[in-house]
Amino acid sequence: NKQRLSHLLLAFEGKIPKATLKSLHDLMLADNSDFMQGLGNQVLVNYAQSWSVVYFMLRNKEMMKKFLNPYFNMLCEGKSKEEAYNETFKPHIRTIERLWKEYFQEKKYE
The whole model's pTM is what? Predict the structure, then answer.
């Protein structure tokens, strides 16, 4: 989605008033009220960032296999998002976040 991509790139540059990117840890564990907090520009950035994380993982088969698929499988099995996050993403979240940022900031998606 090109519109979400443009919001994400502007957020990386700090060019969206009253909106910042969340850490992936905070984004993954956000509930609806956290996600919608601030409304307006912040919600646009939250949506763009969420879309971009999923897009990044879907484009990388290793990430999809190691993190995304097990995470969604755990949710489908009835685990809470916190349990699923802790078992899949948490031990690797800093590396994932660094790779995700590089992917979009260096325009590797093109």
Answer: 0.90
Question: How many whole angstroms separate alpha carbon 64 and alpha carbon 54?
Answer: 9
User: Could you read off the pLDDT tens digit of each residue along the chain, which spans 110 residues?
Assistant: 778 889 999 999 999 998 999 999 999 999 999 999 877 899 999 999 999 999 999 999 999 999 999 999 999 999 999 999 999 999 999 999 999 999 999 988 87
Q: What H or E segment, with its residue span, contains residue 23?
A: none
Amino acid at 73: N
Distance from C-alpha of 68 to C-alpha of 73, rounded to nearest angstrom: 9
Calculate the dihedral angle through the C-alpha atoms of 4, 8, 14, 17, rounding to the nearest 10 degrees: 20
Q: What six digits make up the tokens of 86?
A: 């802790």
